[in-house]
Amino acid sequence: MEEPTEEDCCHSDCVNCVLDIYQRQKSPKGLSILKPANHTNSLMSQTRYRPFRLVKIDSDAPNVFIYSFALDDSVEDETRLYFTPGEHVVLRNEPSMNSEHLSRPYTLIPWGESATFSVMIKLYAAGKMSQYINQWRVGQKCHWRGPYGDFSYEPNTYKNVYMICMGTGIAPMYAISKQIIENEEDETVIHLLYGSKTPEDIIFRKDINELSNYWNFSCTHFISNDYHESQKKFNETFVNERLTAESISKTIKYSKNTLVLICGSEEFNSNFCDMFNGVPEIKVHVFS
């Protein structure tokens, strides 16, 4: 366990502050909320930022990119970061003299075999971290720490998993779906309910289609804006309305051994949590 330095703290009251994490790890009870990755390795630290080299940038949807990283040349150890699907890592910017330190969490995703790890990031024109990321070029160093997360999954624990998400909330759902689908012994059935503004805004669209080729995966896209039938691809199922608790009320089957995963905006998460509040047959987990 590495003790963080003053430079490791960005002093911006970020989620998973390195100083708080270090104090939890020092306590006899250990981490009460956060947990280390299931597969421990020396590639990344939860309490110290480490440099990784940007090796690839893939465009996926409007303003959405997949950034893949490899070990910095100064680090010699394992080559891949092992993580539990649903976990995230934290990025720290390298501020100029007149700018401030920033840190943001980004979900880890399974993407290719050559990189140490990959994250999906949506860039916003007015976002301070987005402006920093938009300047990235292949080959430069970026500083990360983690991974963090409190979600765990055991194969065949649930008969059905409903994944309810919007926009970039697809990131943990995609990683968890891949884990389930790639395990031939896991017979859990996945129902992905995914909200987007337009068909072009669907993230991981091709990858979701590939998952749909498996018997235990299905996806319904809720498209809030009007669209033309010609915009459909891959025999997709579209519903022309916003993804709300009311719009999926007839879709959810209230049965035993059901897990519901939710990931979206704070309001989105709250509304769906209210929907399932008090339903004993269903376990709910929210990615915030």
From TrEMBL:
GO terms for molecular function: cytochrome-b5 reductase activity, acting on NADH. Keywords: FAD, Flavoprotein, NAD, Oxidoreductase. FAD binds at residues 104-106, 122, 128-130. Residues 47-154 form the FAD-binding FR-type domain. Its cofactor is FAD. PANTHER family: NADH-CYTOCHROME B5 REDUCTASE (PTHR19370), NADH-CYTOCHROME B5 REDUCTASE-LIKE (PTHR19370:SF184). Belongs to the flavoprotein pyridine nucleotide cytochrome reductase family. This is NADH-cytochrome b5 reductase. It comes from Lygus hesperus.
